[in-house]
Amino acid sequence: MDPVKIEKVGNKLFEKQKAFFRGDFFHMSEEIRRFRVRAKIFQLLQDKIFDEPCFGLSSEIEDGLVEFEATLKSCNRGSPAEIAEWRRRTVECAGWLNGRSSRPEHAAKHIYDFMQPLTPLPRDIPKGHSSPDSTYDSSLTLLCNDALKLQILLRRCKADYRFESFKDGTVINSTVGSEITEQAFDGPFDANTQQSVAIAFTISGALVKYDSASGQRYVLEKSHVVSRV
Contacts by 215-219 with C-beta closer than 8 Å and gap 24+? Predict the structure, then answer.
């Protein structure tokens, strides 16, 4: 795979794209490149949806609720459980309005723009085939819509749910091995041994539940990582 040219003029994502599509990206195996892209898409989804206090409403209404929730958390009044109950009921009531959030469309456009260097140039599209832009656009919008539905579902619960990822380069051993899934990696790892490995990158973060009353942490879905010895 040949390196791609990243447009700089008018491109707000230039520096981040440059860091991601650095020279060695195109010297990686196809499998690792695919994992890298999946990891980046998950990270962008997390930035735009999973880490956001979504209510599923238009920005005109939602922005005020987001600010109100942040104020509640910072005013040192009321317990975390009480604030979580307000959030849960508010998200539930918001669903009665059948509002339309613009988050999925904005997230899909952001992901598509970031991955633009990987889309075929017009001259590279086989004769008789249509541009893939519309297919990518609809697929990403569907993905982002599903991500928002999941985030709304989690925010309708009393507990707090978060997606958490290992930092690249984190060294793990048997003491933390139970919190990862060796689903995709380029080095061996056995949680029953004392062998240590380093996280190359996280494909998708762990889904973690925090009890609103006790603060107890539960890992519901393990991280999927690529690791190296």
Answer: 215/80, 219/179
Count of residues in the chain: 229
- Note down pLDDT in tens along the chain; length 229 residues: 445 567 665 677 888 888 888 778 888 888 888 999 999 999 999 999 999 999 999 989 999 999 999 999 998 888 888 999 999 999 999 999 988 899 999 999 999 989 888 876 544 445 555 555 555 678 899 999 999 999 999 999 999 999 998 888 888 765 555 555 544 444 444 555 556 778 888 899 989 999 888 888 998 888 888 877 5
Contact by Cβ (8 Å): 209, 215: no
> CA-CA distances (angstroms) from residue 228 to 35, 120, 173, 186?
14, 32, 12, 6
CA 149, CA 104: separation in Å to the nearest integer?
10
CA dihedral of 82, 85, 90, 92, whole degrees rounded to 10: 180
Is residue 201 classed exposed, middle or buried when 0-12, 13-18 and 19+ CB atoms within 10 A define those classes? buried
Alpha carbon dihedral 37, 150, 51, 88, in 10-degree steps, equals 180
* Nearest-10 crossing angle of helices 103-114, 30-45: 150
